[in-house]
Amino acid sequence: MTQLERGLAARKTPQGFASRFSAFTRALRRRQTRNGYLFMLPSMIVLAVFVFWPIVQSFILSLQNWRFGSDTIPWVGLDNYRRLLEDPRVEGAFSNTLEYTAVVVPVTLLLAFLLALALNERIPGRTFFRAAFFLPVIASFAIVAIVWRFLLNPDIGLLAYWSREIGIPTRSWLRDARYAMPAVMIVSIWKNVGFNMVILLAGLQGIPDTYYEAAKVDGANHWQRFRYVTLPLLRPTWMFVLIITIIGSFQVFDQVWVMTPRGGPLHSTETVVTYIYYQGIELLDISYAASIGVVLFLIVFALTLVQLRLFRFRELDY
User: Fold this and answer.
1) How far apart are CA 303 and CA 44, in angstroms?
2) What are 29-64's pLDDT values in tens digits?
3) Mean local confidence (pLDDT), 118-139
4) Cα(214)–Cα(80) distance, integer angstroms
5) Three-state SS for 64?
6) How far apart are CA 112 and CA 189, in angstroms?
């Protein structure tokens, strides 16, 4: 039998068909992978230019001593980080940021979840309430902060006027170190709760009704359906909302800078990002500001990894 005859005979056998089908699937998989990378290429270029490269540059700047306008950029190694550890304002800024995060994140998520549960039911006017709670989200935070600064003004503010009308002593919310941070927290919660509500509401509406119907058939009550159906299936949405909210809380800037006198009074509302702005933009100490930004980036990155790990671990339990 010639080689040509043996090849034709191999094609007619099941083994020959299987090998040709396997080669076809491998070629198709390679083509799909190549097309996938081509579709990702524009986004990867944008991320590389506007995200990854600035991060690398920030790390490099933190190891130098560059002030805006200077001709030389000397290499100082870890001197900026040693200076950071000895700076009391850095410690205060991180402490205020952690305090802000510890209050705003859980309160915002709890209120958003309760609103999402309520507005997921068939109640009268739920479309109006959804739009009303989401309305602050689309407004600029700087504009919102200016409005609240006038509302909380102890002399001409609307809140002070109502307090005087009903006989309650007025407080200088944004000029008192005891009340400035709580005022910023309240405004932040009011501004952000609508966004989290919409995301959680979308997650609730994405749960198929068949799961609830099956749970009813099995005799599950309302709490059991909520515990064993709603919460487990809403976990990916919770993960997204929690990570986004924590990252946003560590980057708080607009409301603090606009509502209070640049993190005052007495630096009581100064956060990490406002201090980075003060060092980098006002004092033009770019390298020192970059070192603070690097530390903030590492903290946020570590917290994000921990959250992803915890959520992945919990998913294995179900």
Assistant:
1) 24
2) 888 888 888 888 898 999 888 888 988 988 998 998
3) 88
4) 60
5) strand
6) 10
* Sign, CA torsion 218/224/229/232: negative
Alpha carbons 281 and 275: distance in angstroms, whole number: 10
Instruction: Report pLDDT digits (tens) over 176-202.
Output: 888 899 999 999 999 999 999 999 999
Residue 50's Cα: distance from chain center in Å?
A: 18
CA distance to 47, 151, 162, 170, per residue, from 173 (Å): 41, 10, 15, 9
Beta bridge partner(s), residue 64: 75
* Nearest partner of 240 among 304, 191, 300, judged by Cα: 304
Beta-carbon contacts of 60 under 8 Å, excluding residues fewer than 6 positions away, are none
Token pair for 141: 């935070």
Residue 175 amino acid letter? R
The identity of residue 234, as a single letter, is L
Q: Of 230, 183, 180, 204, give the one whose Cα is nearest residue 112.
A: 204
Instruction: For residue 99, give the H/E element and its range.
Output: helix 88-119
How many CA atoms within 13 Å lie on the side-chain side of 216? Answer: 6
Cα–Cα distance for residue pair 54/230, rounded to 1 Å: 40
What one-character-per-residue DSSP string does 254-303 give?
HHHHHHTTSS-STTTT--HHHHHHIIIIIS-BHHHHHHHHHHHHHHHHHH
